[in-house]
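Reopening: structure tokens for the manganese (II) ion complex, inputs below.
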Amino acid sequence: MDQPAPGALSAKSAATADSEVLVVLVGDDGVIADDRSVDAGTRGLLEAAYDAMIRTGPMKAPVTIPAPDGLAAELVVLSRVTGSADDEALRAACGAAFQHIGHARSAAVPLPEQSQRAVMEGALLGNYRYNRYLDAPRAEDRSGTDRIDFLTGRTPTKALRTMLAQAQATAAGVNLARDMVNAPPNKLYPSEMASLARATFKDSEVDVKVWGPKELRRGGYGGLTAVGQGSRRGPRLIRLRYAPKGATTSLAFVGKGITFDSGGLSLKGAKPMEWMKSDLGGAAAVMGAVMAIAARQLPVNVTGWLCAAENMPDGGAQRPSDVITIRGGRTVEVLNTDAEGRLVLADGLTRAAEDDPDLIVDVATLTGASMVALGSRVAGVMGQEETRDAVVHCATEAGESAWAMPLPDELRATLDSEVADIANIGGPNGGMLSAAVFLREFVPQQAWAHVDMAGPGWNSGSSHGYTPKGGTGWGVRTLLQVAIDNS
Ligand code: BES
Ligand code: MN
Ligand code: ZN
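Re-run output (same inputs, fresh job):
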């Protein structure tokens, strides 16, 4: 969409790269770069500049300084790597440098000896901007870096070229998801999400199929239908199918795609409604992941299901105490129309399970309770123990924070209904868990994990590391890693 991934490999070094900006990562032991991308003399100059910078106190955020004499670049952005210089620390430090740059024509990043892909990812993720609705001068001021060169100081190896392609695939997927979450809800509604999916995968191996309101009604998709019926913009179920030749394992990713969550007749207050354009973060993660998986040509079948609806309170809206029928025949008493995510996911999970994949992962900005439990940067993962732990492992591996949470059986009783098979809200405690217990009812037998990403999907604080304000694209890298681990 908005952001092409502007990275390239260059045989130049920190001394010879004639970019506007040279980005330099500094850890406890000095400049982090291999000897070819930063020669000893240049390293000395940069470390002297850094030592001067911190004479009056530690460096808390990236700093721009004039380039020391002898370098071809005009400016140097110094960025501190905190703690152990592992992949995620380098990704964050490099991302922070690129978030710090307002606008630059070009920037160069000397590559380290290890973690090269993480550095590339950090740059491409930190360089994300959402400019679409700014006037031209403001957009220009905040357009990030037009071109990024990753410096190797020698002819780039094939391994590095592969890493760059992988980093670009990841960043393109994450940045697509960020664009979707940041899109205003009057611009990105369910039918637009379908158009976006069609446009995104037009010239790719990914097949896109869309169910509209009529087909959903006829197909018995009572959850999507009920949630969508209070809006003039009807619901859509969008299937993204990537099926490379020879793949034997099949994965299904199901995403909550509420393009705006007003709460419906159980209307939210003004404050909590403010960021509810972000309620499609799960669907955005699924779409971004499918894009990255297809770009990397991973040998695994992946079907993405985007459950898209707008939760609005017009005269046709569902009422608290309506009884609806989910695809497959189970009935739900809707006691609170603001617990809408689980209704659209119930349809999506049921449909995904009909293809009998080897693994189902659903991703959703499902409950405020998940933020009470885990704060705003950590997702909760529930499901069968083994599957749950595998997904947590994938998240950690990819640099996204997630934590395993239980599915206590006793919570099922809190969802009992007098008039239907199940109610859509449980008791006052453990709201993240009872939502997951609800979803479990709609997965017949497959390996399944549910990811509640209400916290990390949206950054309402200031930017940090490679994470901008607003849509974070959280989940893309976890799902991509699930596909990698299964291929
Ligand atoms: N989309 C919200 C959950 C949410 C809250 C996401 C805050 C991101 C930030 C979801 O549809 C919702 O409204 N959940 C209710 C459930 C309740 C009515 C059982 C909630 O968490 O309050
Ligand atoms: Mn809601
Ligand atoms: Zn919601």
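The first strand starts at residue 7 and ends at 10. Residues 158-182 form the longest helix (25 residues). Marking as resolved unless the reporter disagrees.
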